[in-house]
């Protein structure tokens, strides 16, 4: 494998910049790609080179496989896919291989293997990783099925083989209910999907989403970088992650992390990856799926281990061995990440794109900000609404939470609404503070209405400031004759022109 | 010479009207009487929307945007919508605020583009029935009829090309009567 | 001692904000003081309360002892002095005590004791700390003095007792030169200061400035937080600091840190303090002076030890014991700080105050920014030109330097000149990279002319962008009739008004 | 329709004149010929002074401020002072650039305030001799005579109160002849 001297990131926003940062540090040249809509996105300026991959403003898609690979090939650049887009796309990886472009990620075979949930579970079971107990096959004989259910232990969940969206599903708490539940699930599945096949799985009570970060190289080395707790989710989207998990015991951690590292060693996986587990209230853990990419939440792992995961991915793609052995990795403190979305939490998290008239990121100690925005940036409509990730760390979890509250209080964003008030509310929630929260947290333990209630019911301060502003505006209107600016220009363009005026004259 | 004003301020979600007597003592220095109580205020603009306001020694970094007589104010993370009117505007508003039922104009509540239109002009619609789909940041948002009635007008066209059907906050989308 | 619920910082700029950050984290209310000139300084907005201490714009001084203490007394606030101003002012501390205001710092006695250099050395010698060998007393007998010089070992330095500014000083390399050098120094001193008294000190070759951070409480506990290397100085002003020192050996470190902690324990010192040492090329170290305050460069120590020094100072002022024992403190990685000054390094570091038209601080991993500025801030003429401190850390020194280069490359400041190009040049300097540099670094090992030479001699890019801008400006001038804005307004005010316009109309 | 211009650009500290032929192909899109070589340029303003410029695929975040025909340009940390003139301005400049010796106007090179004035009008001064002290950011800066001569005029007064003697960059301080 040749040394990587240039990296094209087939992605945008904060993750493109995050990867460029490691490249810049390592002295590796960087290449950005962008769409017409993203011409002013900050990743375009951060890179040494930048190429547009769309033909016109009407096309906002980054999924331009052939163009991207052609650019990388021409420039002699390796490709890092980030997350989303072409990450976990075996076909893209194969095309890179075919064109002789280095892909910074796992092999096509591993991407494909983990791309199918059932396939991944079969492989992992084979590699010694526990999966949620159950029959993978449709239930044909009720009495046989009952026997299996007894072995698994109630409660169990019946699920339609061809199902989805909750139809053909039944939770069964005891054997007496098994038969009737099975019939209902089967008939519901028949009606909904034209096929009545149903299978059975253990139902995990108060499930936690805990994942293990792993790294492998092409020389058969594989290590884990410990775990992350990702149970704070809204509509199956992670919003706050922490490392290490405050819920799992030291014993569970040791078992889970070892099982993960051993498994990827066994299957010969290389580059970064994540094994997602569901952990029950009883600390039993079961493999759910494996992500064959850099995760959004990887910074919390970097903060507690001191490992730059992107740097390792680049070394591994060059064919070098990992810079760390398992015994070099230890947990140092605690880290938390909040994903900042351009959404209005007091209005059912509706999207809130627009112009960032003020954008000041937090400073001071124990902060890591990974941002894809800047003051004056107009957040486009077409992409993911996550504009930044903010991480805080400390020696203890309580310290990290204290720090995060201080940090979020400094984040100044005007022009759009963000999810920051939601994060602050979570950070004050007693269940969250206890460290024992499951994936039902938002639904069961969190009061969304809280967000709409103002802490300060006294309106004196807003009334005073609005009144003074009204007076100032009246004075300006009165003292000047003004012409109406063009209505089709954004405020920002108008501002730009005004500034240019004053310069031309000044 | 001190500039003086009397304003009537109302805050969304908060009952009652606040009577504000404002005196500008010097640049950036005000005495503000709210409902009979005096406050000493030092008021400085920091940038586009951030103001540094010191009220009787308490320091606030206030985020404020202005739309006509309405002010979107954020203080310590709390959001307030304040309307500030003088005597004349207040009288005008009282005159016109007899509520109009019947004709309802639907406006865009967020920027985005119109991906699909589900009803035609002349169609009967129920309250809550979707009329069109607005896409913003990869998410689809149904624009629903506010009442039972007839779709009278459509101000927008749908397109899968975002450039051709972009709408801004407050853009009129349709009329139901 | 009562619990501290409110803290007034008798300071401005980045250090006021840095102290407020810890208070906000701890749930302690904060009070800022400000001058008319500093009304828009960011520390005013960061605090919960803010009070002006000047009568008009003509007065720019923060030295308003009585007013400051009166405000704190009225509010029930403790006072943290930061550095400079009233830090290390025993009289201020005594006035606080007299008014019943808690002072977050050492006792008046210790401030006073360390305020006199000779007094401090005497105390520290007594406490077992090595000081630069020499006679403290004027030389009366040349033959006696020669004997002492032989014991100390050549080279030695002769210094005027009442001297300063290099006059009455002579470096003596060997005994043959002693007598003539002594006569010259003495006569020079007589002419310059009206007194010919001269004393003798060992001359340290290639001296390093290394200091030890210490913390003590009122219960007799005292610990050190290891050392900092501060030898990169320009005109006796530190510009880059690192922790730990790359120069001293593990053995020297152990000795020096222990001696420092033992000494402050012996003298009963409490709160934060720093013992400055001069370390010779031979690793011998000698006490120079003790700073009885929080140092500018304390963040590098916080980064390698994980201790929040301000938090400990607050606990100590409340009469609580330190939260750490010596065995809890260990070095984790390496940290570097660059002090960012509003100065033009390519123009002999001349001051460069003004309006910050663009101010974007670096983000990403391993960064700590302590800043006293923001986009739109007009840096006042009247205060210290340091606008921010930037710290980088990593597991190794090489990693921290790599990170710092990446970090400084992201710092976007327009409108003024800053010392950033100077820092980048130092970070690339071979002597600096070797880790063995002394206080003569800037004079002997650093090429100031380097800063004036452009890395890129090709002018194509600037010519292209300036030409396009010229075209755009011409087009705007041609297409519009404009009125000249008032000349006495700053650009920023003008911008503010324009924005207000468009809003009033929009 | 494509806008075209020819400019003559000089850069402080760099010899020679650069001939620039500029063609605006579309919004933000230019073909720039510098001394005979063509460059494709994508040029966008990001904020007050930052521009995102992509030249033949190379991406630059350029910091640029404009003072009349002079442009203060920072590229990758390197500072350039570029003067861009059209044909007419270039001719005018060539006509007036016969150097004037004799009367020397001293201007403030940094903002600050005049703390002390050391010479009176009519005094004889040597080259390098301080005429006044300008204080900026706690540091004293001697303002020296550029030549031997007589101090002809003083445009400023000294004061210990900074408000009373503030000077901006480029303010005239004195004349020596």
Q: What does the model show?
A:
The complex is a heterotetramer, with 2 copies of chain A (506 residues) and 2 copies of chain B (177 residues). With 506 residues, chain A is α+β, with helices and mostly antiparallel strands. In chain A, helix 3 packs parallel to helix 4 and helix 4 (90-99) runs antiparallel to helix 5 (108-115). Chain A is 37% helix and 22% strand. The longest helix of chain A has 20 residues, at 460-479. Chain B is mainly beta and 177 residues long. Chain B folds into 2 domains: 3-85, Glycoprotein, Type 4 Pilin, CATH 3.30.700.30; 99-176, OB fold (Dihydrolipoamide Acetyltransferase, E2P). Chain B has 1 helix and 16 strands. In chain B, the strands form 3 sheets. An 8-stranded antiparallel beta barrel of chain B has the order 1-2-3-4-5-6-7-8. Chain B has a 4-stranded antiparallel β-sheet with strand order 9-16-14-11, with no helix packed on it. A 4-stranded antiparallel β-sheet of chain B has the order 13-12-10-15, with no helix packed on it. Chain B is elongated, with a radius of gyration of 22 Å. The mean pLDDT of chain B is 88. The chains are: A alpha+beta (506), B mainly beta (177).
Provide a brief overview of the structure.
The complex is a heterotetramer, with two copies of chain A (506 residues) and two copies of chain B (177 residues). By secondary structure, chain A is an alpha+beta fold.
């Amino acid at each position: 494998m040749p040394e990587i001297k240039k990296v094209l990131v087939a992605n945008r926003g904060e993750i493109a910049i995050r990867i460029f940062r490691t490249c810049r540090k390592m002295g590796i040249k960087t290449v950005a790609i962008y769409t017409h809509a993203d011409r002013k996105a900050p990743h375009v300026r951060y890179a040494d080179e930048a190429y547009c991959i769309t033909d016109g403003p009407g096309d906002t898609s980054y999924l331009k496989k052939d163009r991207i690979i052609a650019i990388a090939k021409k420039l002699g650049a390796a490709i890092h896919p980030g997350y989303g887009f072409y990450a976990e796309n075996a076909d893209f990886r194969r095309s890179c291989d075919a064109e002789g472009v280095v892909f910074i990620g796992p092999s096509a075979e591993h991407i494909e293997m983990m791309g199918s949930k059932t396939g991944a579970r079969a492989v992992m079971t084979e590699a010694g990783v526990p999966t949620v107990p159950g029959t993978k096959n449709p239930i044909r004989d009720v009495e046989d099925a009952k026997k299996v259910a007894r072995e698994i232990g109630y409660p169990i969940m019946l699920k339609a083989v061809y199902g989805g969206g909750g139809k053909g599903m039944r939770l069964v708490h005891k054997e007496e209910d098994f038969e009737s539940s099975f019939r209902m699930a089967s008939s519901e599945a028949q009606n909904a999907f034209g096929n009545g096949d149903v299978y059975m799985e253990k139902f995990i009570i108060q499930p936690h989403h805990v994942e293990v970060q792993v790294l492998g190289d092409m020389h058969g080395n594989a290590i884990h970088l410990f775990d992350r707790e990702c149970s704070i989710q809204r509509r199956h989207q992670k919003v706050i992650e922490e490392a290490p998990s405050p819920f799992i015991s030291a014993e569970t951690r040791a078992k889970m992390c070892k099982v993960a590292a051993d498994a990827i060693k066994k299957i010969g996986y290389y580059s970064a990856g994540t094994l997602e587990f569901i952990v029950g209230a009883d600390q039993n853990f079961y493999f759910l799926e494996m992500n064959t990419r850099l995760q959004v939440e990887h910074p919390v792992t970097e903060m507690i281990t001191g490992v730059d995961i992107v740097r390792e991915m680049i070394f591994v793609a060059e064919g070098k061995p990992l810079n760390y052995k398992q015994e070099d990795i230890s947990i140092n403190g605690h880290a938390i990440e909040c994903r900042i979305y351009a959404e209005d939490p007091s209005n059912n998290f509706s999207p809130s794109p627009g112009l960032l008239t003020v954008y000041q990121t937090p400073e001071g100690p124990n902060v890591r900000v990974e941002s894809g925005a800047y003051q004056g940036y107009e957040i486009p409509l077409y992409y993911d609404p996550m504009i930044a990730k903010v991480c805080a760390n400390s020696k203890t979890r309580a310290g990290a939470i204290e720090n995060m509250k201080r940090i979020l209080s400094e984040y100044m964003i005007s022009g759009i609404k963000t999810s920051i008030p939601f994060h602050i509310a979570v950070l004050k929630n007693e269940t969250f503070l206890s460290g024992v929260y499951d994936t039902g947290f938002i639904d069961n333990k969190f009061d969304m209405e809280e967000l709409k209630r103002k802490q300060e019911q006294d309106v004196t301060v807003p009334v005073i400031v609005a009144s003074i502003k009204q007076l100032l505006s009246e004075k300006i209107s009165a003292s000047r004759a003004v012409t109406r600016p063009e209505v089709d220009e954004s405020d920002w363009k108008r501002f730009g022109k005004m500034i240019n005026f004053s310069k031309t004259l000044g | 010479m001190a500039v003086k004003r009397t304003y009537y301020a109302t805050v969304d979600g908060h009952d009652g009207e606040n009577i504000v007597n404002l005196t500008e003592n010097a640049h950036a220095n005000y005495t503000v009487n709210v409902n009979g109580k005096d406050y000493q205020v030092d008021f400085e603009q920091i940038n586009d929307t951030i103001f540094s306001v010191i009220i009787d020694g308490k320091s606030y970094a206030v985020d404020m945007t202005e739309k006509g007589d309405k002010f979107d104010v954020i203080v310590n993370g709390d959001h307030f919508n304040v309307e500030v009117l003088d005597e004349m505007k207040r009288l005008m508003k009282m005159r016109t605020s007899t509520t109009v039922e019947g004709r309802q104009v639907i406006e865009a509540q967020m920027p985005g583009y119109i991906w699909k239109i589900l009803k035609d002009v002349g169609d009967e619609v129920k309250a809550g029935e979707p009329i069109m789909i607005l896409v913003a940041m990869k998410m689809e948002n149904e624009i629903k009829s506010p009442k039972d009635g007839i779709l009278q007008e459509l101000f927008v066209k749908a397109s899968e090309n975002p450039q051709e059907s972009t709408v801004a906050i407050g853009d009129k989308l349709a009329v139901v009567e």
